[in-house]
Every structure is written in C-alpha cells, then in structure tokens.
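Appendix C reproduces, verbatim, an entry submitted by the partner laboratory led by Prof. M.T., so that reviewers can inspect both the input and the predicted structure.
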Amino acid sequence: MEFINTFLNYPLGGITVQMLLSAVLILVIGIALANLLVRPLRRLIDRASWDASLKRVVLLIIRAVLYAVVVLIAADSLRIPITSVLTAFSIVGLAVSLAIQDTLANMFSGMLLLASKTLSGGDYVQIDAFEGTVTDVDLMNTYLLTTDHKTVRIPNKTVQNAAIVNFSRQTLRRVEFRVTASYDAPTDKVKAALLRAAERVDAIVSEPAPFAGLAAYQNSSIEYVVQAWAAPSDYRKAFYALSENIREAFAEDGIEMTYDHLNIHMKQGE
C-alpha cells in the first residue's frame, strides 16, 4: 500500500502521477460521454432538411466543441490555469485562421450556400461570366457543367459575393430573339411572321402567348423583337428553332432581312 501511495505521489515536474492518471481518466470518460451525446444530436440533425455536407460540418463543430470542453476539464485537474489554455487556443486559432483565411472564407460561404439552398444540384445558373448546370456544391467550391461540356470550379467565396441567376427556380424561361427588317416591310406583316415562327416551335408553350413588337428604328433597318416562353430545360432548343423558323417565315412572306448598308439618292440636275 505504501508503494502505491509513493507511486501515485511521485512528482513529475509540477504534477504527480495521480494527477496525470486522473487527467487521462477524465479524457477517456469525457470523450466517451461526448460521443454518446453526439448520437442523439446526429439523429436530430439528420431530420433537418439540410444538405449532407452541411450536416457533416455541423456535427464536426459540435464534436470539436465537446472535445475542447473535455480537454479544459482535464487541464484543470492538472492545475493548469484554464485561462492559459484558452489563451493558447486563441493564439493557435488566430495563427491558423490567418494562414488559411481564404480556405475559411470558402468554407463559411459554402455553409451559407448550403443552408440557404441558393443552389442545388441540377440547377441551370449564371454566376458572373459562367453559365451551366450545377453538378455539385461542397464546402469549398461550386462546380458547373457548361453547355460545351466543360467543368468549371468556382470558389464558394466568389459565388457568395456574385450575382447569381438561377433559371431553374421557375417553371418557364423567356426566349427572346431580335431581328431586323427593311423599312419597306409593313410592320403588321413582320410581326405576323415572327408570331408564326414562334408557333411552329414545339418547345414553346402557348401560355403565356408569344409576343412580337417593333423595338427600334435603326439607320438602315427596323429592329423587331419576338418573345416566347419555354421550360428551362428546353430553352436552347427553343431559341435555335425560333431562329431558323424566323428565316423561313420571312422568306415565305417576302420580307427582307436587312444588313447594314447605305442608300445613295442622286438627283438629275435641270
């Protein structure tokens, strides 16, 4: 018994073996209790309508906080001032955050994007100069697949600060095409040809009805606009089909599709 007391009270610097064993026991029991506490929290988080990546991050943060509390309790059992431990954590945290500030910015931006559900897989979006289908949104980056089958990786910090146009959040997307015609062509005839061209496109819906109008008077021609509606997934098919149909409709009605030119009128002198 005396040997055990001597062993437990054996000094190791400013602590004893007994204090060290107590700290280890606190760590083991504390980590086990933290893991037990995480289980019901995980079930609760799984019920939330969050993205899977966001759920993993939230659980990681909860686990890290619980482990930090256990470490502080163990440090207190070793008679280490908690304020000193917190100061050390703060200094290390500041150094790490400065070293990886861009990474942290992307991570927090990713959490905001996932929580707000601004983007989802399969959405067709425009982010600054990039346009394509969202294939994945993780904590660091957003990935787009462009129409020419290129994968674009955009840091989440850039996405969060950008103007995002999400074409998939509405059931319809407007198809707009502008074309010029001669000043000699009657306006009603041009508008009728444009509407007929839109009606021939299967991807264009009947409601709302297509619209055609005179948009601008130019130097050598009149600019007209035709607007119609299609499902976001049919947008490109509708746009190019409308372009082809306009040319055919103009040819049927003898409407001249003009180009920039200069008319010179000469008067014969007396």
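The radius of gyration is 34 Å. Additional entries are available on request from the coordinating office.
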